[in-house]
Amino acid sequence: MTAASTPKFDEMLHEDGTVRAAYSEFRNWYDAQDKSWLRRQDAEAEHFFRRIGITFNVYGEADAEERLIPFDMIPRIITAKEWRKLTKGIEQRVRAINAFLQDLYHRQEIVRSGRLPISALRNNDAFLSQMIGFTPPGGVYTHIVGIDLVRTGEDDFMVLEDNARTPSGVSYMLENRETMMAMFPELFTQIPVRQVSDYPRRLARSLRACAPPAYDAAAGKRPVVAVLTPGIYNSAYFEHAFLADQMGAELVEGNDLRIINGRVAMRTTTGYKAIDVIYRRVDDDFLDPLTFNPESALGVAGIMDVYRAGGVTIANAPGTGIADDKAIYSYMPEIVEFYTGEKPILQNVPTWRCSESDALAYVLDNLKDLVVKEVHGSGGYGMLIGPTSSKRELSDFEAKLRARPENYIAQPTLSLSTVPIFTKEGLAPRHVDLRPFVLVSPEGIDITPGGLTRVALKKGSLVVNSSQGGGTKDSWVLED
Fold first, then answer.
1. Do the beta carbons of residue 49 and residue 402 sit within 8 Å?
2. Hey, which end of the chain has fewer CB within 10 Å, N or C?
3. For the chain, what is the domain count?
4. Is residue 8 part of a domain?
5. Across the 480 residues of the chain, what is the mean pLDDT of every consecutive 10-residue run?
């Protein structure tokens, strides 16, 4: 399936130009508005984002100062029926991922069965030997999951990526909704949209439900939750601070913490206080200089020993990054069926593993038509979009593939669905994806209705990442 072979699916308009049911009420409202007023509201949204500091950093650039994430004020709308099907597929996939991680770090039955080759784990930096034989509190590995979805047709939602390590973007989902409600309050009285504003409360409740064995429930106090951030220079620092504030949790850095009496404790004005659950936004390699990177100043020396002894919960668990691996992704249909006994409700994008000689030969022969990604890549970096690449770029990437084929997977250039964005000339279609956010605890799986819609603001572009020129918009799931 390539961009040339399949027409794009417009989520607002039928092929004859009539409005689909999901957008009918919104479109009636939009057509009744004064367009100059809408343009002023569009400018006001940018001012609002600047005032409250919704920014991100782009690493590796000379002008790597904080940037504003572009916001588009036309919502992406999903019907209740569509959402019900999506939630079933998302829940099935998240259950399978957690069971997969439990198995990988214990008996590795999926490897013994022949469904997953041992080569997928061998020499894979995301697989942590330090987690072998250890079960996190409550048996939960992936406390917060982001499942990236793309749509290619009426009923064709597919999983593009699994984010089981430290999925980001939920603060933009929340601020997008708050902005829309501030600018267009009447819309939310006319159109029944499911709320997302209670996500921080649900996140805090879910994290507390994963308290470690050392937590003393009999003391009558809630488990203490803290957000561990690398600091103000991290690209997602706004989100770390935002979520800590919204949850009523502490925001801490590694130098605020120390190990005292077998617990991780944070510095306060009245001395050190034990933490029960750490929502960490620090990568595995920097968590503990005694276990991982000895040069790290971002984590806490000895935290892994406390973790394995039951003194603290780390969310997400170290070693969950193996489920983010794009080579592992290619086995997800088999993984879902192996652990759930069910056929996957949500399909994968067809994927060629370049580590396999036949797949590599096919990819090299069809490079101009494919998207090629690094196995551990993220943020739109290190990838090739064949149809939009020059002959020089194709040639350079071919050399990379031949040198390290195991470092890449390839996929067809999907004809992603489009939704309208606001332009000075009126509404215009742009390609989008969707990242729903999922909370996992011993109490169950909780999926926030909607998620973060990322949009490629450039006409014809398929790259939605904010670091690559994309923007975001509010995602509406309609009530029945």
1. no
2. C
3. 1
4. no
5. 57 96 97 94 83 56 60 96 97 98 98 94 90 97 97 91 92 93 94 96 97 88 96 90 96 97 95 97 96 94 97 98 92 97 96 94 95 77 85 94 93 92 93 97 97 91 74 95
